[in-house]
Every structure is written in C-alpha cells, then in structure tokens.
Amino acid sequence: MFCFYRIIIFTVATLLSGAVCQSDNLGIKNGYITITTANFKAQIVRDAQVLASLTPTGSTFDFLPKDLISARAGNGQYHWGDITFRYRRGSSGAWTDGNSATARKAVTSLRAGTGALAASNLAPTLPATVPLNVTREWLDVEGDLGLRFTIENTGNSPVEIGSLGFPAEFNSIFTNRLATDTQRLCSLSDPYLGMDAGYIRANPVRGTGAALVVTPLGDTPLEAYRNLAEPSYAATGYGSQTFEGFYEWQVLSKAWAEKEWAGAKPWNTPSSRTIPPGETLQFGVRFSVAPGGVRDIDSAVRKTGTPVAFGVPGYIIPRGSPSQLFLQADAGVQSMASDPAGSLAVEEVSEASYSITPASTFWGRAKLTVIYADGKTQTIHYHVTKSATDTLSDLGKFLTTEQWYNDTSDPFGRAPSVMSYDYEARSIVTQDPRVWIAGLSDEGGVGAYLAATAKQAIQPDAAEVTKLEAFIDQVLWPTVQTDDFAVKKSIFYYDPSGLPQYSYSSNIDWTSWTSWNEDAAYAIDRAYDYVHVAAAYWSLYRVARAYPSLVKTHDWEWYLNQAYRTVIRGMQNDVGYNRLGLMGETVFGEILTDLTREALTSQASTLTSAMKSRATQWDGEEVPYGSEMAWDSTGQEGVYYWAKYFGLANTATKTVNSVLGYMPTVPHWGWNGNARRYWDNVYGGKLKRIERQIHHYGSGLNALVLLSAFRSDPADTYLLQVGYGGTSGPLSNINEAGFAAASFHSWPDTLKWDGYSGDYGPGFLGLVLGSGTYIVRHEAFGLLAYGGVLSAEGNGAVVNVQTTGPVSRRVFVGPLGVTLTVDAGSVRSFSYEEASGSVSLTLTQLPGAPKAAAAVLWIETNDAAVKYRVSTPSGVTSERLGWRVPLPANGDVVVELRS
Ligand SMILES: *[C@@H]1O[C@H](CO)[C@@H](O)[C@H](O)[C@H]1NC(C)=O
Ligand SMILES: *[C@@H]1O[C@H](CO)[C@@H](O)[C@H](O)[C@H]1NC(C)=O
C-alpha cells in the first residue's frame, strides 16, 4: 500500500480524485465491536480497539467521524483510545517516544474485568523496547463511557514518564462536505486546561442537540493540550481551512516543555511521574452527555464530581477592580494562590463565592490555583488588563504614533495613515507578499486604521482625530476609494516594472498569488472591504456629532453620507460576496439607525430595502452563513442582525445557536468567548499556520450576536457568559505599550501574541458596538454585573453599579429589560429600583477626553408598553429620537428616568 501526501495530491488530485489509496492499518476490514452503556452507543475497531463512533443514547448524532474512517485508518492518524508518551530510565538523559498510532498492529484482546466492556494489551502496537506494559480498558462508568490505561513498569529500574497524552478525535472534518452536511454531522471541541478540573467540551456545530464532555477519570489532570501532527491526505485535508486538525489531552508534559516548547510559558506547570519497577499508574477519561446541549455543560461536568468554576465578568479583567468567582466542588477549598504571586487578591465573600482583584500595577497572564480538601487541584486562567480607559488610550496613542505612516513620497499614496505594524521588528509593515496587509484594505490591512477610528467613537482624542481626518482626506477617500465610493482590495501592489523607483524588498518572494499587480489590487469586487471604510466614516460621524469642535475638515453630515454611500456602493452588482453576512456589518445597522435619527428618510429607506433583500434571501436558506471560505464564523453576525431587525425569528434563533456552536465558555481567558477561527494567520498574521486562534476578530464580532440576543432575553444568562467573554477578547490583544496583535497563538510551542497587528480591527469594532455594562439576575449566582461593580442597599431594593468596562456609554439592566445608550461623555455609575422600574444615571465627561456640551440618551425597552421619560435634570430636550442632556464641563449630572 502507498499513499500520496498533500503536496503531491495538489498536482495529481484531479486526475486521481477518489482513487488515492489509503492504508487500513486500523484493521477496519475486520469490523467493529459495539459497546453500549446507559448513556452511549459506541463502536470500537475490533483489531485496534480504538473508538470509531460515539453516539448518545436515543440520538443518531455521532461525535466521531465514522463516516470518514476509511480515510483515517492509516498509521499516524489518531483516535480516542490511542496513547502517546515519552519515557526514560532513571531521571536524566534523552526521552524515548512511544505512540500507539505510529505503526499499528492489532492489539491483544484481554478478557474484560469487572465494569470493563473491552480490554486489550497494547504491546503489539508499541515498540518492543518499551519497558512499560500498557493495558487499555473501555469501561461503563455509572452509565457513561470510560477509557482507562494501566501502565506497568515491567523493567527493573524506575521509569520516568515525561509526557502522556490521549489523542482526542471529533468530527470537525468539513472537507468535501456540503454546508448542510457540515451543519448536520460535524462537531467542534475545546479544552479547559484546568488540571483536575480540566475537561474537553464538544458540541454539534449547529449549536443544538446534546453536547459531550470528557472529564478526568481518576487522577488525570488536563495539564496541556498538544496539537497533533498527522499526514494530510486529500480526502480529509488535515491541517487545512476545512479541517483544523486534532489535539491531545496531556496529563504529563515535561518532556515537551523542556524541549519543543522551551521558548513558551506553559498554561500549567509541566510535570512528569516516575514509576518504580513492578508498579503501575492509571489514567483515564470519562465521556458524559450534556442532554440539554451547550447550556448544560457545566452541570454535566459537575455531575462527574469534577469541580466547576464560573467567573464574572469572565477571565479578562481590569487591574484594580474586583471580579467575582463562584466555585462548585465536592470538597471545600483548602487554599488559593495566584501566579505570579500577588497578581490576584482573593477574598471569600460567602461560601464558595470569591472576589478576585488584580493588583493595581499588574498586567498580563495570571493563574489562580485552587486546592480542594480532597486533594484536587484546579487552575483558572486570567488575563489582567490596565483599566479600560487606560487600555483604550494606550491603543489610540500607539496606533496614531508608532503605526503612523507619514512618508508622503510613497508612490502608492499610503501617507498619512495608520498602517499595519510588526511589533517584533518594531516597525510599520510597508511591504508584505500578501499585499493587502501593507495596502490598507482587506481585514489584514485595515486592522490598524479601523481600530484607530472606532476608538474615537467611544473615547475621542483631539490629536488622534486630527490625524485620522488627514488620513481620511488624503488616503481613504481619494485613494482607497474610487470617486463613486467603490473600495479597492489593496492600494499596495507588486509592479516592479511600473514602479522602477520603488525598491521592493529582495527578501520577499513576490511570486505568490497574493502579490497582486495594480489591476488585481485595484479591483473593487470584495464586499467585506466596504464595511471597514463605512465603519471608519461612521465613527467620525459620531465624533463630529457629539464633539463638533474636534473635526476641522468636514461636518457630521459629510461623514454620515460617506458611510451611507459606501454601504450602498458595496451592494451593487459588480461587488462580490454582498449577498453574504459580512464581518462588522452591525455597523450598517448603526448607520441605518443614525440616518433614521437624523431624519434622513430617503437614505434610510434605500438602506432598509438593500438589507431587507438580503435578509429575505437568508431566511429562505437552510445554512445562510456562506463566506469566501468553505466554512466560516463570519456570516452569522450580519444574518442575525437583519433577521432580528426584520422580525425573522426562526433565522435569528438558528443563528444564535450557530454562534453557540463555535463559541465556548470555560474558565480560561483564551477560550472563554473565543469564537472559532483557525486559518486567518495565513492571511493576516506574521506566523502563518493553521491553528486554533485565540481572540482573533471572531470573538468581538460574534459577541454582538449573543449580547443582542441576551438583551432581548435576559433570562438566558448563558448568552451573556459567552458573549461578554467574546466582547472582552479584543482587550487582551492590547499589550502594555498599546500595540494590538491580530490574535494569540494557542499551540503550546508558541503561546504568544502574533507579531502583526494584521486583522485586529474588526474585533475591536465589535467591542465598540457591543460592549457595555450588563446587569443580570442569574439563576444560581444572583444579581451580577458584567463590566461594573455592583452593590445593593435597602435589602437589595436599590442596586448601584459603578461602570468599569471599556464602553461606559451602554448600560443594560436585565431585570428591567432596558438598554440605555449615550453618544458622548460617560456613564460613571447608575442605580435602579426593580419595584418601581426607576433608573438613575450619573453622567460625566469622559476622563482625559475633550468635553462635550451634551449627550444624547437613547432608551430602549424590551417591553414596548414600558415607556421611560426623563424627569430630571431640567434643560433636557428631545433630539434624534432620544433625550439631549446638557453635560457640565466638570462634575456629574444625575439623570432620573421614570417609567
Ligand atoms: C502485561 O499486562 C497484561 C495485562 O494486560 C498481563 O497479562 C501480562 O502478564 C503483563 N506482561 C508482563 C510482562 O508483565
Ligand atoms: C514623519 O514623522 C516623523 C516622526 O514623527 C517626523 O520626524 C517627520 O518629520 C515626519 N515626516 C513628514 C514628511 O511629515
């Protein structure tokens, strides 16, 4: 038997399609053994005894890619039941690898002991030199499926195990599937690297139906999560845009940490274990069903005896402000400690409820280790930011100084602008073979200027606005756009003969398809590019409207009209992808809202028709989340926005579920609210590889869907837990100096932010449009504030909240179903009384920002019958369908709302 690797397939695949042979090292030709427990029906391959199929009882949904097993039966292709390890005799010297998948042989079937459904000895499929006798059992664990390994040291000297991993396979193979089949058949998984509280969660991609959790069976911490290398065959395309690839649950990781991962700071302390001669170690995992789906995952984990943590507002938290942590476990807490020491102060508020306050000077990753009285260890992973205000001002400053490109001799006309930046080289990216990164278009090239302009909408700065006006007047409008509002795909391009005076770097390979010439770069056919330009104009519209003295070159009407015309131009027939949901297009909704508020009725009606036509189309599609990629997590935002706007309830609900299908919540800042993205490093990052990206722009954008859905249904607190994690993501990308990276590399050999700013901007736009202070009544944990610090008086009759989030202009009071938004200044604090429904807002000028004469306050209620009016202060007038509240130059104004 022989098989072709991917690289060969690219040249011959079309000729051979389907004819590429694939080895059957697993022995699938000899069939399967079916094993059932109360909660599962499973199949293991008879020869290899690895898991081939896993279906919850009463369901037909298979969490494993059994339908592709013949394409995954070769050596080096991993399945549940495989084991990888590294060992050495004694306690020094080189490590030796053991791996049950490398050279498969049928294992030796053993008579299954008590509780075991199948058992085997792995000796035939491991190297003969391994001094360990490995036994594997598939177990019935209280109706769940268990997988347990017993490892015996059969030699006569101690053996140190420096790595031990269980490959984790799920049906996340989208290759060659129709979108409807992907949605029907596939699942996505993510880890919680929480040691004894660690687990893997998996759920159908569509976000509905039972979910699956894999928790420790016995003493089996989830210490590290290692990406597995597999051969990539055409039939599945391992490690591609349609198949991210698999990982393994690592119980022990020392051998990798000291070698391949030596440059990275691991999530958990790498460890090893030593087995004395004749002794054994046991490790295992347990598969359980969360029958209620994703919202039921914490409870399914808890039922296995595994501790569960719930952090509010999540795990990306500002220094100096308290956040909350709730723990649920079989045993009491014995100790809690932070790493670095002193980074987090912990105070017990009541039983199992803690206040976590990062030190006022700390910044960066902080790990909280909880030790329970029964000996279990749990790690909870935080990312501490500066205060929200400082984080935003750092970002604005960095973008408009370090990333400010002012070489007006540039033949591409890119100056002055806020350009892509390479933080590792400490320089602006003026050239990249992916021309758009240096060409001020595409997500990869707009990240910097989009973040800089969107920042002004929530925290304007006079000097920054002046620079951005120059950018708009001298680059964005005359060069990135054509004079009929079309948007180019890049204004940097590769044309050495046309531009002999320009020195293209000789260190760059310019032969790739991404090194467009002028014609290709100046094409105006990519609808995605229009969103960023419209968002930049809309942000400046907001500045011009609330802070008119800050703008010098145009008034608000010009900016709003530019935004509007750009959106409409993007909807014309010569622009591709405009019938798909576009990342960031929630800003189209903001533009429509502002046109309406400004009584620009004809523009509002044109925009409404254009959006309605798309929404109607989506409402008729089974999977309306198309993209320029084969599978994506970008279309949902627009589909949801307009489905909700036009009252297409089924599509709106389906879309929320779709987002929940790829956006998990776990007690780790990196995965909490981290919408699945895994290929955009190739298009916008410096380190180009396919890997689970942490807080790429999907987090901030998909959070818009969940936060909006939550505002409409404040009883569904899961939406807020995930959504707030997502909207906080873009804060973690901003480093101490103010540089914002495209995403964080999750592979354990790297664990760092990408060097490029790349496509950071759209996620930040999501934060601007969706973040705020959210108050919710949680079924288990009571009244909670996300993006604020809550206190109650009069036995809880009056609730006071101090805002701490990055967007202090949006407040959602869940128990009253009311959303309050101001366009200027800042809501310093607010209070409300649930019984009467009254709300009081304390407005102030934004700290460190220019002064606004007034703020317009908009009040939206979930119950249309509830109408609020402003009772104090005097001098409040109606404006733009809201209330105009004069702001004092110094000090606060208290606005009282009565329903
Ligand atoms: C290895 O373990 C099996 C049980 O899986 C046992 O039957 C066998 O005797 C052991 N071999 C050695 C060399 O200890
Ligand atoms: C560009 O900016 C640098 C640094 O701020 C400054 O020294 C230089 O004079 C500027 N050049 C132009 C052409 O404005």
Can you characterise this structure?
With 899 residues, the protein is of the alpha+beta class. The chain folds into four domains: 4-303, Distorted Sandwich (Beta-galactosidase, Chain A, domain 5); 312-335 and 343-385, Immunoglobulin-like (Sandwich), CATH 2.60.40.10; 388-771, Glycosyltransferase (Alpha/alpha barrel); 774-898, Chondroitinase Ac, Chain A, domain 3 (Sandwich), CATH 2.60.220. Strands 6-7-8-9-17-13-12-11 form an eight-stranded antiparallel beta sheet. A hairpin with a 4-residue loop joins strand 36 and strand 37. Helix 6 (442-458) runs parallel beside helix 9 (528-546), helix 9 (528-546) packs parallel to helix 11 and helix 16 runs parallel beside helix 18 (761-770). The structure holds 2-acetamido-2-deoxy-beta-D-glucopyranose (NAG) (2 copies). One 2-acetamido-2-deoxy-beta-D-glucopyranose (NAG) binds next to loops.
Kindly summarize this structure in a few lines.
This protein is of the alpha+beta class.
Topology summary:
Blueprint (H helix, E strand, L loop, with lengths): L5 H11 L15 E5 L3 E6 L5 E6 L27 E6 L6 E4 L8 E3 L5 E6 L10 E10 L2 E10 L5 E10 L10 H7 L1 E6 L6 E6 L6 E6 L7 E4 L19 E6 L1 H4 L15 E3 L4 E11 L6 H7 L4 E5 L3 E3 L4 E6 L4 E7 L4 E7 L2 E6 L5 E9 L4 E9 L2 H14 L2 E2 L11 E2 L2 E2 L4 E2 L13 H17 L3 H19 L37 H4 L6 H19 L9 H15 L15 H12 L3 H19 L15 H11 L3 H14 L18 H4 L8 E2 L3 H15 L4 H16 L11 E2 L15 H10 L2 E6 L3 E5 L1 E6 L4 E6 L6 E4 L4 E5 L3 E8 L4 E7 L9 E8 L7 E4 L4 E3 L2 E5 L5 E7 L1
Helix pairs in contact: 5-6, 6-9, 6-18, 7-9, 9-10, 9-11, 10-11, 11-12, 13-14, 13-16, 14-16, 16-17, 16-18, 17-18
The structure holds 2-acetamido-2-deoxy-beta-D-glucopyranose (2 copies).
